[in-house]
Design goal:
The protein is an alpha/beta fold. The protein is 37% helix and 15% strand. Helix 1 packs parallel to helix 13 and helix 5 (103-118) packs across helix 7 (158-170). It binds (2R)-2,3-dihydroxypropanoic acid. The site of (2R)-2,3-dihydroxypropanoic acid has 7 residues, from loops.
Length: 322
């Protein structure tokens, strides 16, 4: 098969871009701007492979562009909620993602957010930078201990499991989970408890962390109704996708003091972030940094290269998504 034409929609780590250009003459995006719908349509019309990522809104309308040449969407990232998978299937487009390689780093970042929220780290940082620190005092910025508390994990996939391991073995927390698939082997290895319903999980957790994929079923999984099941004074952490949380309802739960705090790496309308969230002292935020280490991002790129390599030789894609 002749080498396919490839377009890369965002800047990638240098070794990955170098391999893509060297091996396939890929077209890069040197100024790293986000492709709009017309640019995505154009990419689908002119290239065999679109190496896309989560900022590309590959809607049905975009995917069904007339005169489409593309046959493969090689996604840089594990989450696929930016691609209309049903439309991709109908259009005969193969899709792959990059599972596994960002698990540990995303779990680390989840622990960072848990700790930051519990120990009010960002509040302390802001105070220092504003020159407002007057010195040590016994009642200053008191937070909450993690050890001995219950962490509720919604979604025990790879990342949820890596978080459970850290929380149990590293931080002495009790861990409960609710998930689409029950994981008896993780239950016995890490002594984590399964909850048959989300409400049950929320009702027994001091901290709740979300690790479910964003799908039609999980949209606004955390809403006014489910937030009401959370323990008063609990914390919510989200490193999955913004759509899983109804931010208006979360704001109300934080404003009323029902929740002690939230720590968010992802947002409903990102990169726009509701300014009301940013105005609350008990909200800790990061700009979608879950997998943002050199190691993860290079490994994600290598995974994309493996999938492209398989596509080129007609072999089954190692990370094909159906
Ligand atoms: C993913 O892979 O979907 C992540 O959100 C990127 O960090």
């Amino acid at each position: 098969m002749p080498s396919p034409s490839i377009i890369v929609t965002r800047r990638l780590p240098a070794p990955i871009e170098e391999a893509l250009v060297r091996d396939y003459g890929a077209v890069l995006n040197p100024d790293d701007h986000q492709f709009n719908a017309d640019e995505l349509r154009d990419a689908l019309q002119r290239f065999d492979i679109v190496l896309c990522t989560l900022t590309d809104r590959l809607t049905r309308d975009v995917l069904m562009v007339a005169g489409r040449r593309a046959r493969f969407l090689a996604n840089f990232g594990v989450g696929l909620n930016h691609i209309d998978l049903a439309a991709a299937r109908e259009a005969g487009l193969m899709v792959s993602n990059t599972p596994g390689v960002l698990t540990e780093d995303t779990a680390d970042l989840t622990m960072l957010l848990l700790l930051a929220a519990a120990r009010r780290a960002w509040e302390g940082d802001r105070e220092l930078r504003a020159g407002l620190w007057t010195g040590w005092r016994p009642t200053h910025l008191l937070g909450t201990r993690l050890s001995g508390k219950t962490l509720g994990i919604a979604g025990l996939g790879r990342i949820g499991e890596a978080v459970a391991r850290r929380a149990r073995l590293g931080f002495g927390m009790s861990v409960a989970y609710w998930s689409r698939t029950r994981r008896p082997e993780v239950e016995s290895e890490l002594s984590v408890t399964w909850c048959p319903t989300l409400r049950e999980l929320l009702g027994q957790s001091d901290f709740v962390t979300l690790h479910c994929p964003a799908t039609a079923d999980t949209r606004h999984l955390i809403n006014a109704d489910t937030l009401a099941s959370m323990r008063s004074g609990a914390f919510l952490v989200n490193t999955s996708r913004g759509d899983v949380v109804d931010e208006a309802a979360l704001l109300e739960a934080l404003r009323s003091g029902r929740l002690a705090g939230a720590a968010l790496d992802v947002f409903e309308g990102e990169p726009a972030v509701n300014p009301r969230l940013l105005s609350l002292a008990n909200v800790t935020t990061l700009p979608h940094l879950g997998s943002a280490t050199i190691e993860s991002r290079v490994a994600m790129g290598e995974r994309v290269l493996r999938n492209i390599g398989a596509f080129v030789t007609g072999a089954p894609l190692p990370d094909r998504v159906d």
